[in-house]
Design brief:
The chain is of the alpha/beta class. The chain has eleven helices and 15 strands.
Amino acid sequence: MSGLPNDDPVWGLVQYYLKPILPFFNDPSITEIMVNGCKPVFIKQHGRMVETDVKFPSERDIQTAVIQVGVAIGEEVTEHRHPIVDARLWDGSRFNGILSPWASDGSSITIRVFPEVALSIDDLLEGKSFSRDMLDYLRLAVLTSANLLVSGSTDSGKTTLLNALTAFIPDSDRVVLVEDTKEIRAQLPNMVSLVVFERPSDPNYEPVDLAKMIKTTLRMNASRVIVGEVRDSLAALAFMRSLNLGSNGCMASIHANDPFDAIERLVDLLGEQGKPVEYARRMVCSNLHVIVQAKEIPGVGRKIVEIAEVTREGETISLFYYDYREHRHVVNEDAVNNSFVKRLAYEYGVHI
C-alpha cells in the first residue's frame, strides 16, 4: 500500500475530483464507498449494501480522480501502463482505483473508510458481536499474555477486534505495533507504531516491507508485538520467529475461513519460505495459543463466530461458537474450564 497522508496541496485536488462522494467520508456509519463507472454509487452502511442516488458526471471524471490519486502518491497511472492504483488517502482511508478498459463497465473506485473513533469493547458487546463470557475469556487471554490470532475474511471485523483488545493490555507493557496501513488506534502509554512506507517511484526512499519491520521489533525491548495483518510468507516467518524467540502476548490477524484453516494458512506461508510442513506446523502450534474467528453474517452483521485454543498436537478446541439457527453465542463450559488460558490465569493469579 502506497502513500502517506500529508499536507501537500495535491490532496486538495484529490478531494476536488472526488467531490461527488466526499460527503460519505463524514458519515461514521459508512465503511465502504463503491464507484462502478457512471452508475449509482454503492455504500456499505451499518454493515449493509445501499444503492445511492449519487453518480459521477462522466467516465472522464472518474478516470481523472484515479489518476490524481496516483499523482498524490507519486505514481504515474495511465490506461496503457499502471492502470491500477492502491493508495492511502489524506484521512487514512484505503483507495483502490482501476481504469477503463481494464474495468470493462467503466473505471472503478473502491474506498474503505475508517471511522475517526474506533469501536470499543463495550461497543462490540452492546452490538452483540460476542457474549459476556467470550469477553471475559478474551480479557484473560490478553492479561495472561497468550499469543492470539484473529482470523476472518475481508471486512469481517478483524482489525476492529484487534484494536478493541488493546484496551486490556496493562500500561506497564511496552507494545510495538506493526502495520502496512495505519488502522489500529491503540491508546497505550509505552507504544511505538511502525507503518510500512513504500514509495516505489521515489528513489529517495528505500522500500521497507512488513517482515523487516517485525524483525526490527526484536531490538526494541517489546513486551508485546501486534501485527495488523500477516499477508505474505516473509511476514509470517518473521512473526512466528518473534513468537519462537520468547515474545508473549502478541497479536495478529490473517485471512482464513476458520481456526483450522488459519493454522494451515500459516503453515503454507512458512512452507513458501522453505520450511518443511511438519516443522512449520510444530512452529505454529507450539507458539500460537488462541484463534478468534470473525465473520460478517449477511443481514445480521459482524460476529465472533468461534474462539478456539490450539494444542501442541495441532488440534483446535472450540470454546465458544455462534449458533446460526438461534442467532446466539454458545459456550462449551467444560472446554473453557479446562482451557489453556484458564490454567495460565490460575498459575499467574490473574482475576477479572
